[in-house]
Amino acid sequence: MTEKTVKGPQSYFPSIEKKYGRPVADWLELIRSSPLTRHMELVAWLKSEHGLGHGHANALVAHTLAEGR
Fold it and tell me: What whole-number distance in Å separates Cα of residue 31 and Cα of residue 24?
């Protein structure tokens, strides 16, 4: 029995859900629906408007943009 270690932005997802009480899918949809398009604009928006920490906001934005929004 081998477990695959989650790496990259997704490794933050369990702690994001635990800390902010919302499923990651909600955050990803929120980012996709934002009129902002640049990585750091989205990170700053999540931090200022939604109270996320920098690392959590960065992980969500990186994952969303890598998927092609």
Answer: 11
The answer for 7, left when phi > 0, alpha when psi is -120 to 50, beta otherwise, is beta
The answer to whether 16 and 60 have CB atoms below 8 angstroms apart is yes
* Banded model confidence at residue 57, pLDDT cuts 50, 70, 90: very high
Residue 52 burial by CB count (10 A; 0-12/13-18/19+): exposed, middle or buried?
buried
| pLDDT digit string, tens, across residues 9-39 | 899 999 999 999 999 999 999 999 999 999 9
